[in-house]
Amino acid sequence: MENYESDIEKRMETAWGQDFPPVPKTQIKNSWSELESTIRSRSPKRSFKWAIAAAIMLLLLPALYLLSVDRSTIEINNYTQLDKEFILPDSSIVILKPNSTVSYNKKFSKREVALSGQAFFDVVKDSLKEFTVETSRTSTRVLGTSFLVTENEDLEKTEVSLYSGRILMSLKDTENRRSWAIIPGESFLLDKGKVQVKKFETDLSFSAGNKYSDLNNIELEKLFHFIEERFGYQFETNEMTKNKLVTLRINKSDSLGQILKVLSLINDVNFEINESEKTIVTLKKEKK
Predict the structure, then answer these.
(1) b/e map 173-197, b = 16+ CB within 10 Å
(2) Which of 66, 97, 109, 169 is least surrounded, with the fewest CB atoms within 10 Å of its CB?
């Protein structure tokens, strides 16, 4: 019994994560006609019960149809505000970010994944089969590595950041057959048709699912850039922040105020937040 219930739960979970076409109107009409004729043939005392049963059947009909559909493509959506972690058929791990979608062939024989939005991939190494992530504009090919893919179709922008291993980037443009080999600590950025490869701090990220990040002698202004992206504020830098190095641990759950309080103590400065303009100003601490 437990195995049966577990199997049903798995099937329901898979079905819930997929989109299916609506039930044809003719199918609904035929089902209603059958139930209506059955109700009429019953005694008046039982008609009410059958009416309820008919209503329930109509409500359940889309769900029953949903469970009966067998598709070759599996699609996983994340409509929540939290990261969604799942395992692909080859045991590779995917951390799907909010408002993002991943789809792949049910057999997964070619290890190909289509992405819309943002996801972190920790790919199991297979020397015989490449792992490919396709977005609307780029193709990322790897054998075994961990990387973050971010696509923004509205801004025509795609960014791939590599944390370990190696990846080969190419554009979905028949006129441009060039490829880019990316190493750990580099990001491939495609912005409105222009390609740029830039460096980033691999430790300064929670994209890989880390609960905290230990930073050792990192430039303060690089940390500012991370805070700007994470919280949506802009730092106004000055002489007090240049060439400063900091060592600290940042937890994923830390708020902007908590991080600024620690930085204030380390650097003997004050940070003033302007909520209306979303800016942060560094001020010299007044001596008491």
Answers:
(1) eeeeeeebebebebbbbbeeeeeee
(2) 109
DSSP 277: T
- Residue 206 in any domain: the answer is no
Q: What is the CATH number of the domain that holds 154?
A: 2.60.120.1440
Same domain, 193 and 85: yes
Using DSSP, state whether 20 is helix, strand or coil. Answer: coil
In a shared domain, residues 24 and 133: no
Domain that holds residue 192: 73-199
Question: Residue with structure tokens 């002698």?
Answer: 217
* Same-domain pairing of 114 and 149: yes
Residue finishing a domain among 13, 47, 68? 68
Tokens 């049903």, residue located: 8
Give just the sign of the alpha carbon dihedral 241, 275, 210, 132. negative
> Which of the listed residues 147, 173, 199 is the one where a domain comes to its end?
199
Angle at which helices 44-68 and 2-16 pack, to 10 degrees?
70
Asked whether residue 22 falls in the same domain as residue 58, the answer is: yes
Alpha-helical regions (H) of the chain = 2-16, 25-41, 44-68, 220-231, 256-267
Does residue 78 form part of some domain?
Answer: yes
Please tell me the distance from the alpha carbon of residue 256 to that of residue 140, in angstroms, as a whole number: 33
Contacts of 252 (CB under 8 A, 6+ apart): 206, 210, 211, 212, 213
Give the end-to-end CA distance of the chain in Å, rounded to a whole number. 72
Q: Are residues 186 and 86 in the same domain?
A: yes
- The pTM is what? 0.58
Quote the CA–CA distance of 42 and 253 in Å, as a whole number.
62
What pLDDT was estimated at residue 208?
A: 61
How confident is the model over 69-109, as pLDDT tens digits? Answer: 347 899 999 999 888 999 999 999 999 999 999 999 998 98
Q: What are phi and psi of 126, to 5 degrees?
A: -145, 105
